What we know:
The protein is 33% helix and 25% strand. With 307 residues, it is α+β, with helices and mostly antiparallel strands. It folds into 2 domains: 5-128, 2-Layer Sandwich (D-amino Acid Aminotransferase, Chain A, domain 1); 132-306, D-amino Acid Aminotransferase, Chain A, domain 2. A hairpin with a 2-residue loop joins β3 and β4. The longest helix has 15 residues, at 47-61.
Amino acid sequence: MSELLVYRNGELVPDSQAAISIHDGGFLLGDSVYEAVRTFRFVPFQLEPHLDRLWRSLTYARIDPGMSRPELRQAVMMTLEANRPLLEDDVWLYIYITRGRFVNNVQYYLPASAEERRPTIIIFCRPLPFAAFARGYEQGVHAVIPPSRHLPPQCLDPKLKTGSRMHLVLAEFEARLVDPEAWSLILDIHGNLTENKSGNVFVVKDGALYTPPAEGILAGITRATVLELAGRLGIPAYERPLQAYHALTADEAFFTSTGYCIMPITRINKIVIGDGRPGPITRRLLTAWGEMVGIDLVEQARRHLRA
Length: 307
């Protein structure tokens, strides 16, 4: 086997052959839901909470996956095991489920009839960008607030993890007009902090953690884990509305997401946060995460700088 394998509707195919129909609603309209899981020592972390959220997304989007949760879990593990000989380190595992084939109606695209349509299920592995993580862990990243705003829940509830992510992509491109290496930090239409294109945000002030409330964001599984770790460490943590003011005047700040877990923010809109280095509470949480999973996250990433 010379290339990674992709699960596609019940079969494993080489990555280069893992195509879907041009009439698939996931391609035409972004009509899909998905989850991204990472491994630690090649074991999926928090797979069950990810499947819980995937099933909630499927229910909300009214997509029938055509298979049971145990069957999907088995497909995920089969995909990981089939690719294990080619994997040198931990990976992302992506699960995408689309509604299936659409037909060209005279007014707009509509799903084909249930008899003609079945969902498209794709599961694949991708190496984690550890070298980029290492630089972020050591130096922190630059967050930029773009002009685009997060979609309000009245339009598309952010708790739905959908493949329709154009507003987040545009926000990321806008941030990179300021700094090619910037990470977006998106506000809602009221000026409150929300998230970035794939993660949540925390700020630290006077020894306490603050993060936006779950109502207007995709409250990540990593976010929940950080709140749990903070409780174990005796770090006060609060969910409350935050504005750019709170981020720019914070002692520390960081993003959370499945791949990197915790990523320090050391500049926002070119303004230095704290002393311009990853702060002590951020480092404590990174250390606690490593102890929880049995891997030093920073050292794992650094090895890829030396490779």
